[in-house]
């Protein structure tokens, strides 16, 4: 049975990714900052041995190390890592951008994905061929940016895209494909209710594309439309 890790798994896209992976008969390790979420407890109860809910704060090196140790107790291989955890600090305006917002966004959105992937190297390599999906955003595109909007989010996700390129180059020789994805604008807490895409539809499409990842996708930035290439 294939094994996946999903970060930021207790709500939004992460929770739906977990549910759809379980429906596809994957074993899932769900990394959650808060593990005592009722939905996660219910899901774990409904999928004994298939869903492992473990504490993970991707902005903490110590938490990443403890999480990977715990993951290694339930699996020796990892077929898929979805770096989904993310934070968007809304309402930032030029002149008022705070260092703390930038630092927090970089720690979660960019550094967390690189550090967790690095810590999972052994598990990923042991799978023989594996995938790392970094959940980015079109708002990280330098080419498509012409207004001063959510700078902490946009800058940190652009850094995540660089992590994708760096990791793709480093890990390709080990059969590990690393790719950035924009999931579309989705009705989550982050996306808001005015977003055009329902969570289940967006994740169905995203997951279908993730599961088709192959060597040719290494280091790509893939949009929400079928095989759309986003400009860096
Ligand atoms: P949500 O805000 O609904 O969920 C974010 C998730 O990330 C939560 O589970 C949250 O946990 C978790 N998280 C935040 N900080 C940390 C941390 N330090 N450690 C571990 N987990 C953390 O967002 P979405 O589901 O909408 O977004 C998922 C991903 O998709 C993000 O990376 C986002 O940038 C990206 N994306 C979303 C779009 C959208 O329209 N929704 C569009 C483009 C990209 P907690 O509950 O503890 O806060």
TrEMBL record:
InterPro entries: Fungal_SecMetab_SDRs, NAD(P)-bd_dom_sf, SDR_fam. CDD domains: carb_red_sniffer_like_SDR_c. GO terms for molecular function: oxidoreductase activity. Belongs to the short-chain dehydrogenases/reductases (SDR) family. This is NAD(P)-dependent dehydrogenase (Short-subunit alcohol dehydrogenase family). One of its GO terms (cellular component) is cytoplasm. It comes from Tahibacter aquaticus. Pfam families: adh_short. Gene3D superfamilies: NAD(P)-binding Rossmann-like Domain (3.40.50.720).
